[in-house]
Amino acid sequence: MNSSDLQILFEDKYLLAINKPHGLVTDKDARLPQTLESLTLEYIQSKEKYPQKCFIGLPHRLDRPVSGVVLFAKMKSVLKLLSELFAQRAIEKTYLAITEHRPSKQEDELKNWIEKDLKQRKALIHLREKTNSLQAILRYKLISNKPVGSLLEIKLLTGKFHQIRAQLANSGCPIIGDTLYGASTFYKENGIALQARELRFAHPITKEPLTIIAPSPEDELWDNFKIAL
Fold first, then answer.
1. How much is the pLDDT for 106?
2. Structural element, H or E, at residue 22
3. Catalytic choice (63, 108, 219, 223)
4. Helix (H, G, I), strand (E, B), or coil: what is residue 3?
5. Is the separation of the CB atoms in 196 and 93 below 8 Å?
6. Least buried of 27, 79, 136, 220, by fewest C-beta within 10 Å?
7. Biggest CA pair distance of the chain
8. CA-CA distance, 178 to 192, in Å (whole number)?
9. How many angstroms separate the Cα of 44 from the Cα of each of 6, 11, 15, 82, 204?
10. What pTM value is reported for the model?
């Protein structure tokens, strides 16, 4: 993949939003030939007269197998502001997931306690608070149900490690392709049927309302839900 292949969802002098493909690591990593962060930096540098002065900062992340909106800051001062917005939950995050099973309720709020298991590199779900656990809250709504799976819209109220993946699996609805959390249906190599669909927030500099939406993934599975989307 080249930096010219990146799908730009929004850009101004302060912010840059990219539609991350599944299978691509978000953070810059010296052990990997390319990541979303390294490709984004290349993209910014290719447009500037003094590329060595370019800055790109990540206020949030997506898991490698997840696709969708990733927001970057183009200045250190803006990165600080964005990080504060995410910490204050002032950025509304909406996800779409296709699960193997239909949830028992049309819509619901899931509240659990999550513990990060470093050995297994996964999140463990608890019904009550435990040492080293953090509260995780999300709301979901069933959008469409098909023989291939169920499409859910998810509002993420907290941003914890593998939160959506672990909470949905714990409720009996693992995301298609997410074998780490018990899914038995294959999606794509290094990919699961989870998309960061939308970010909604006030621009940290202009204060204007901003909504950034990623288009639906283009593949056979997601095509089943085109009318619903």
1. 97
2. none
3. 63
4. helix
5. yes
6. 220
7. 56
8. 5
9. 11, 11, 11, 19, 20
10. 0.94
